[in-house]
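Cross-posting from the modeling subforum.

Setting up a comparison between two proteins and wanted a second pair of eyes on the formatting. Protein 1 (sequence, then structure tokens):
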Amino acid sequence: MSRTYTPKASEIERRWLVVDADGQTLGRLATGVARLLTGKHKPGYATHIDTGDHVIVVNAAKVRVTGDKARAVRYSRHSGYPGGYREESLGHLLERRPEEVVRRAVRGMLPHTTLGTQQLRKLKVYAGKDHPHEAQQPVPAPAAGGASS
């Protein structure tokens, strides 16, 4: 009987990757980024351990949304107070906070557990082309999985 491989913390190597969202479709971008965050592109991938890389998404304001989604998709939240329900369309949120649109799309494709929360912390999203992570020496993300740069 073979045993399940579990990578040790010392064996996990995390890189910093840059993904350019300019002209990419939101869903395809999010699946590629989620794949990089979970570490599925690595040979030492394990479902129960965070083996993924840090991902920087730039040009989030230039992401594409096809069809009628800009008007039809709604994001809702509640403050917890009476009458505190708020709803906003994807198009409006994309104008107001494009980073949040990409972050929410990626979050929906990660595990809804503490592991998914840990993986989401490695995602950095910026509306423009500039980011403050030059000290980490990020490299362009591999083109596999839709997250091309």
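Protein 2 (same layout):
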Amino acid sequence: MKKLRASDFRRPSRRGVGVLLILSVGVTAALVAGRTAAAVAGQNANLKPDAPAVSYFKDIRPIVREHCAGCHQPAVKQGELTLTTYEGFMDGGAKGKVIRPGQPDQSLLIAYLTGAEKPQMPFGQTPLSAAQIDLFRGWIRDGAKDDTPAEGRSIVEPGKPVAYHAAPVITALAYSPDGGLLAVSGYREVLLHKGYGSGLLARLPGISDKITSLAFSADGSVLAAVGGTPATFGEVELWDVAQRKLLRSLRLTADTLFGASFSPDGAKLAFGGTDNTIHVIEVATGKEVLGVKQHDGWVFATAFSQDGSQIVSVSRDGAAKLTNVAGGVFIENINQLKGELVTVARQPKRDIVLVGGEEGVPRLYMMHRPRSLVIGDTSTLIREFEKQDGPVVSVAFSPGGQWVAVGGSTDEVRVYKTDTGERVASFKGHEGGVYSLVFAPDGGHMAAAGFDGMVRIYDVKAGRLAKAFLPVPLEKETAVSIK
């Protein structure tokens, strides 16, 4: 297990919502093995003998991370091939070695990248360009050496557990439907804790640098982790909760994804991205069934209607948009534009949603307008809650829908009565912003986390802190002050 230094963590601004949400992650398909030498004879004809040396670290590794690591990481390892490390690359897979140093035409890797052997890799994706394939040929021709610098080796490779020396900023939390599990975002992994913080049960390592959103399906069988690596890829991970096994890793964009939400029946997963698009996939197959650009800015959060036929999405363009899942038909904006929006949650028993963002005023809206739209109409607005002391980053409903919780760039979590807007609780003590909130299924407890890397569980009815814990194992003991 490689060690991650404290300097490898980059904490976002305490008050900047935009900075906080430029996280990212990703995945995609890959290379497999198996072919005959004759099948690729002559494929190296375009490689110039005097071509400059190719670097594994600078040239090959970025391509592999973007296009191959999704299917060939330790949690999936298709074809028994791992491509998240140089060592795994050289070990090969079920069909043997994929690289023969000095012999590009005799290397299985080239056969699959060129399509000389089927299926062409990356599987199910756009083939690599001729220039990219020539980089692999040149690297193999020159001996397929590892030139990773010493400082590069100190950073953990994707798919391997992290050795923490500092608590990571926590950007996502999710409770399983039975309350037995609390999923917490870490660095390139999801950590599964007992529901009320009494112990770490499992670590689910992936390849995305950041997990921006977590969600359990209604039956608790699948955990979705959405995120990516900035300016590299956006990834959706679907985990079998019982087996602690990665079912599927999907790369859909070239940048981070946000705001995962399951349809009520668990069959679909919606999320947004920096491509201004609302995405919906089938959970069982991973097939994208919807990808529409309704927004003029990054899409940060989504929420399905009760019957699963419509989605509310919010964006930095300030709009909360209602869209039909079937056909991706835009219905309308349910709000008036008042500033960047970054979070949305639907009331569990009704088609009403709470949204928040940079303006710092949480607003409660009907998803379905009670009368015909007219210019300046605000008929969907149910209530404005009190203005917070900074931008709103996370909102959540209690299971019964009677309470809403609001967190953001300040160190305070506030809880309100949904029907009246009356504040019923206020919890302080966080050192920095609160970036994720989730109520426990019992309705009386709530988990919150953010900038300082601590998870705090509150007894909402009693108005007190019930538990605070560090969700990651530290390499060395660290004194932590809990307020």
